[in-house]
Amino acid sequence: MVKALYMSISDCTGCQQCEMACSYEHEGVFNPAKSRIKVFNFPEEGRNVPYSCTQCADAWCMQACPVDAIYINTKTGAKEVSDALCVGCKVCTIACPFGTINYNHATGKVIKCDLCGGDPKCVEICPTPALTYIDAEQTGMAKMRLWAKKTDAGQAAQS
Amino acid sequence: MDYVIVGAGPAGVTAAETLRQIDPDGSVVLVGAEADPPYGRMAIPYYLIGKIEADGTYLRKSDNFYESKGIKYVQGVAKSVSPDTGKLVLSDGAEIPYDKLLVATGSHPIRPPVDGLDLAGVHHCWTLEDARAIVRLIGDGKDVVLMGAGFIGCIIMEALAVSGANLTVVEAEDRMVPRMMNQTAGNMISDWCRDKGVNVMTSARVTSVTEGGGKLSVAVDNGQTIAADLVVVATGVKSNAGFLDGSGVETEIGIKVDNHLKTSVDNIYAAGDVAQGPDFSTGGWDVHAIQPTAVEHGRIAALNMAGKDAAYKGSLNMNVLDTLGLISCSFGLWQGTEGGDSVERIDEKKSRYTILNFEGDRLVGALTLGRTDHIGVLRGLIQSNVRLGVWKDRLMADPNRLAEAYIGATRVI
Amino acid sequence: MSWTKKILRVNLTSGTCVSEPLNMDWAKKYIGQRGLATKYFVEECDPKVDPMSPENKLIFATGPLTGTAAPTSGRWSVICKGPLTGAIACSNSGGFFGAELKNAGWDMIIFEGKSAKPVYLDIDNENAELKDASAMWGMSVWDTEDALRAARGDNDIRCASVGQAGESGVLFAGVVNDKDRAAGRSGVGAVMGSKNLKAIACRGTVGVPVDDAMKFMQAAGAAKQILADNAVTGEGLPTYGTQVLMNVINETGALPTHNAKDIQFDGASKIGGEAMTEPRESDGKANLVSNAACFGCPISCQRVSQMDANHFTVKGQPKYHGKEGGLEYEAAWALGAATGVSDLETLTYCNYICNEYGMDPISLGSTVAAAMELYEIGAITDKETGGIKLEWGSAEALAKICDQTGLGQGFGKEIGQGSRRLCEKYGHPELSMTVKSQEFPAYDPRGIQGMGLTYATSNRGACHLRSYTVASEVLGIPEKTDPLTSDGKPGLVKAFQDATAAVDSTGTCIFTTFALTMDDISPMMAADSEGGWTSETMMEAGERIWNLERKFNNDAGFTAADDLLPQRMLKDAAKTGPAKGKVSDLLKMLPEYYELRGWTAEGVPSNETLARLAL
Fold this sequence. Notes:
The complex is a heterotrimer of chains A (159), B (413) and C (615).
Chain A: E1 3-7, H1 17-27, E2 38-42, E3 47-51, H2 60-64, E4 70-72, E5 79-81, H3 91-95, E6 101-104, E7 109-112, H4 121-125, E8 131-135, H5 141-151, E9 154-155
Antiparallel strand pairs in A: 1-8, 2-3, 4-5, 6-7
Chain B: E1 2-6, H1 10-22, E2 27-32, H2 44-48, H3 65-68, E3 71-75, E4 78-82, E5 87-90, E6 95-97, E7 100-103, E8 107-109, E9 122-124, H4 128-137, E10 143-147, H5 151-162, E11 166-170, H6 183-195, E12 199-201, E13 206-212, E14 215-220, E15 225-228, E16 230-233, E17 237-239, E18 255-256, E19 268-270, E20 275-278, E21 285-286, H7 291-305, E22 311-312, E23 318-323, E24 326-332, E25 342-347, E26 352-359, E27 362-369, H8 377-383, H9 390-397, H10 402-410
Parallel strand pairs in B: 1-2, 1-7, 2-3, 7-19, 9-16, 10-11, 10-16, 11-12, 18-20
Antiparallel strand pairs in B: 4-5, 5-6, 8-17, 13-14, 14-15, 20-21, 23-24, 24-27, 25-26, 26-27
Helix pairs in contact in B: 1-7, 8-10, 9-10
Chain C: E1 6-11, E2 16-21, H1 24-30, H2 33-44, E3 58-62, E4 76-81, E5 88-93, H3 97-103, E6 108-112, E7 119-124, E8 127-132, H4 141-152, E9 158-161, H5 164-167, E10 175-177, E11 181-183, H6 188-194, E12 197-203, H7 213-229, H8 231-240, H9 245-252, H10 268-271, H11 273-277, E13 288-292, E14 302-305, E15 324-325, H12 329-337, H13 344-357, H14 361-376, H15 382-385, H16 395-407, H17 412-415, H18 419-425, E16 434-435, E17 438-439, H19 449-457, H20 470-473, H21 489-503, H22 518-528, H23 535-556, H24 567-571, H25 586-597, H26 607-612
Parallel strand pairs in C: 1-6, 7-12
Antiparallel strand pairs in C: 1-2, 3-4, 3-6, 4-5, 7-8, 9-10, 9-12, 10-11, 13-14, 14-15, 16-17
Helix pairs in contact in C: 1-2, 2-23, 7-22, 12-13, 12-14, 13-16, 14-18, 19-21, 21-23, 21-25
């Protein structure tokens, strides 16, 4: 069963613990600015929405990488960035229509969610049901894919 | 089915992989012109500064990648195509028969008609071989003149600056990156580069390069003469379509293709920088010489070559550029459209700039400076054609809420 | 390590911003935030200083746990000499500003002097700069935040600012951050306004490292589990917010009403947490939209409310029709129960006004209640009020006078001076429900005896948050004590005061202590910061901080005579409820308290006590 990070749009309280867990896991420091997941606040709607990479099937970032620095973790299905190979050209950051792969000025490389190797720390720390790591088919991935398709440059009859 | 792909850049390699995936029984031949294995030109600047070795630029990293995938890699330069007999002819005389041919030969740098560009010490920066030559000539305190401050010139500029060179950039147009940035943003980039110690000349043309006393002397039409150890020419590129002369394949600014990326000749397709493909934003036909388009072209062309009916909605003109630490991005109709709304924010002190262009309540184009977080949503907003609804007004009031707009407009919150 | 070890010193007179190293000897004795900033303040400021003069200093301080993954790590404080009280003022807030300041690499900011013209402090990590705020002067907190975001072109900045109340010298003006979180009490906003300092805008991306990250995550994880499993922090507060208390305290017979003439309010059920979730008669929608969290908080007690757009207070004013910070218990009590107003929507509006103009709703509501009593007995009339009929329970009068107070208009100017000054002016000082000139909050000392001593001895004037014995006397945390007896309360108050001073100095929220003990908190401190923190050293630091604050007040001229409740608490027996017939036993508790504290009978820390605490 492929699992996916499910980010609810109704349960998040905006506490940013996920951002701290993420930045700690990946950068060794509590720093929301370096988190791969970000909570967006919607004051008009009175909502907080956690947002990160959904490991989309199209893998725009991976396709666009000119140096093969993004690869699929066969265990988790996550698209991961190889720090050793990434040159920091940022092409993936404009290619990803979700805006979930970002340039890290400090390292000169890009960062994105890697599902923490199958044990996402944001999920572990989330005090609400806003973040869960569950069967991909239950996550509303279909909806995300629909939007991905709208971005898709080619109405490809993919085999 | 015999598939032949001529050109081993991102479009060609992606096409080869796609074909191999969907037609396991077909034969796939990939023809590359250069001595190096297929590599990404986007990575050359990082090779110049020593951030990576040459193999760090390779499009696929494993040693026997092509062999392991059952892709036959051939080194050679295309000389001609004979559609009647279904053959690609190489400059060494070799003939490669095809059932379906993909032309993904990219482009080559233009050498402007200026005296002295054939002197030693004058180089393009296009191929890995060019880069190796430049690496030998740069170093701390060297005088370097960069002709052209377009996208290609600018991505090289950082590497030249990092090398410790005294760098002069000569751009014929009135601003830097004129085909990617408007006047405001182009000027902000110029100011930024000057602030970093680069001598930026705009509306200026090199009139001649001469040699004397072990140095080059670069004359500029603004009256200045600059001594140089190295001159890098980056004044534009032209499609590598000359070998198609006589084949019946129609060309304009690139090879003309339909929305299946097929050329005017049956069984011949084109992809990447050489192809004048459908433009998502304008509905017209254009060359978008960028990595994501090359990859999309490669995939779509391959699908059609293998008999799938894959219609292409068009590529989005977009780019990202890092000029000495100032990151700029352009998307779609960044110049705006007639009658469309736009919103602009300028912070010159912080070198931050954003302009968003709308048609109705859809985003159609954008430029940004000094912004990197979640920047991809600009592509998402434009290419998904999403109606922004209330987010149009919110973006007009505050164009910084880009990611929120994307999330808000594409997911029900 | 989770001190950034850097202080930003801003001289508003000269316009300079200078970075200086944190005094680590002090940090290891006073932890951070409340304690450490008080130490700096006491060392640098004359206790006799006029609070509204340029010589008063104003400190914005984070704690060592601020900005970390510790639960409720969004806390920060403002420290100065309070203009309402003349005592040490330390007002604590949540939201996101504090964590942002810490992420920018600063433990605290010390403001000195006074700017010649309105300015705001713009912080971008290590870069700090004073900028012209002339265009923002006169703006509300909400508009100021919008203006700052536009000026920076960055929506990720966090802001703390004063509204019109802080500018016009309302003595209970607060500093408001993130639009509806506030360092509300004692008039810290008036001090900020007196310095022509409109706001601080901050963006921090440096990050917050801790000493032993592995141990820290374990300790924080354990603490979060306890908070999640606890009925108050895991269920009551997330569901109803602090408003869960309205009916509870009313039933306890300790909800001061009609300026504490009564201690039970018959409208309580209409303005409490449950009422906020029920459909309104007018439009069928509930006042409460959702809960929300401050930075790092798994409890998320914050209320997000949406008013009926046709309510008389907001009709035709779209800026109040959105989703905004809703009523907390103290605000609902002060604006509602204290004044006899039981219209939830009016209270919500007045609460918005407090956030928007930057005022403390407790002092505001309590002062309005005092004014209503003055009006009832004829000490003030329509002549003074400008025609506002300040009658008990009048929603219209309440809304009008709240507006006027925030904007410094009409009779609101007098309300803005607080109830002690108001009641003195009109010849009835006994009607001011204050200690050290600060209005006391939502718990009646006759019905909850420990709170009488809490108010009387609070170093910043009457306050529930210095030793929240309600936890023990009503909720049974950590163990149940009888609210109607004063026996054992001096010891309880002292223990709560010391523990609270310590927790307030860490950068976390006192609400965690509904579930956490010092044994749960100190492991986070130990893993976070150098100093080998234990529960014992934390408690000792808390006691040290308490005594330091007391010493400052004594040096400022306060004596034991100021540790006094209003006569109404001591003489007028409760009329109804479980406490019927009771008065506060303060005078019995005080001597015992002084003795436990190691203070003289005059309420002065003895030399032995000072020596024991290395003061």
